[in-house]
Amino acid sequence: MTKKRLPYLLAASLMFTGGMTTTIAHAKTPYDGVWLFDDTPARPGVTMAEISSKGDKISGRITTLWYGPVEMQNARIENGKLLFEARNINDKANPTRQWSLSLAGGKVHLNGQIWFNEVLVSGERGSAKDAAQRAFKFSPMPQTGAPIELKIAATPPMGWSSWNKFAEHIDDKTIRAMADAMVEKGLKDAGYLYINIDDGWQGERDANGVLQPNEKFPDMKALTAYVHSKGLKIGIYSSQGPKTCAGYLGSYGHVEQDAKTFAEWGFDYLKYDLCSGEWFYDTAETVKASYYEMGKALQATGREFIYSLCQYGRFDVGSWGRAVGGQLWRTTGDITDDYETMAKIGFDKNGNPEYTGPHGFNDPDMLEVGNGGMTADEYRTHMSLWAMSAAPLMMGHDLRETSAETLDILTNKAVIAVDQDALGIQGKAVRKAGDVEIWRKPLADGRVAVALFNRGTKPASTQLSASDTGLASVTKAENLWKGKIAGKNGLGEYSLPAHGVEMLILSGR
Ligand code: GLA
User: Fold this and answer.
1) Pick the CATH number of 2-134 from 2.40.50, 2.60.40, 2.40.160, 2.40.128
2) Residues 482-494: what's their mean pLDDT?
3) Residue 354 burial (CB < 10 Å; 0-12/13-18/19+)?
4) Which of 14, 51, 96, 292 could form a disulfide with 324 if both were Cys (CB 3.0 to 4.6 A apart)?
């Protein structure tokens, strides 16, 4: 870092001492120096550009709040503009993007993109002192050590998270209201335990670097105590990057300190979301190390935390999620409240079933049941898929507004029991025919859960045969959504509504 800044500082000091003026005059471009940007869009948050030149060689970088310094590549002057390329993320087809700086009216105008963020900002000249003040502070690259051995979360964690319904519009009062509703609606009795605050609670760091909540969360200790007083547990959220996905402060450079803060406040669960950390940790090894660093830090607090890894299923996360101390790891990008997205994740993208089992679960993201974007049949499909997959069940709606229908779906005891089965097997499709998929999940007591899904937009019918069930002979069948014993031992023909499901538990040999 310091080394890379040397050429500019050297050129500047030579100029100020008046020595070797011929070299300087020859070397400089109108862009050389420090440019400060104060009106940058929040993401990626460009704060300055530093440019130096020597002969034909121009080097420099822009500093961003999200990704730290972004080095200029192939910088050159063309038609009076300074053009360069810079590293891009999340777009394999465009690993670099084009940027330009132009001078007009005494200001410099910067234009470029990183991922989906367009940058178009104007800046003014600054000094080396400004540059020092705005310089990004790198943290040492974390290292992975011996696997963290934790035997918590024998079954998939259950609870509620603020993100799907409220996004950043959360506050102390709403979180307390969710805890109240969790109890009052009978959701706690059904097994939902965690009340998780997702992104949007963070404020600034104090003079000692301790992260403070924003004004919407006046007293975190009082909030956790309140949730605990209801017999519930409570979770919080951060990122290993400088910025969280919604642009709040992340834990970059403060990992141990933040783990301690979360423990002191009384939290029981941390969702750790890669977000801007993807710039710094972009290989299997570095991403893993960044999760390990927080896993170790949580462990060192002496408080028990469920540790939820959120990096959208990259780098075969299920193969190392446990070793970094995780009990659940996201397998995909974000769910949204529509059948297509939910079905794509639930049917086709929920990670390698081999990785799921007691104390560690593939996480296809939080539930959307009750948010209104799907029909009751579609929400039953959603709940059935998650239960058949032994997925964490994190509700994502406004618990105060749980309709009778939503409650039926979310508190179906037998469906939850399939999800929470002690074997922790992630069920999978055993047969696909047209739009119909038949899934099977063996249960700890020898019974078998079977789900018949219709992915089509029209009603469909299908035959369930003994061979689909893995049992030589079926002696009893319970229909979980209809709440009754199914005739013919559950075998035979089923009519399935569009996007609908039937779920069964079969006994036999
Ligand atoms: C990412 C995660 C979401 C949510 C948001 C918060 O998109 O995948 O689940 O936590 O960040 O900003």
Assistant:
1) 2.40.128
2) 85
3) exposed
4) 292
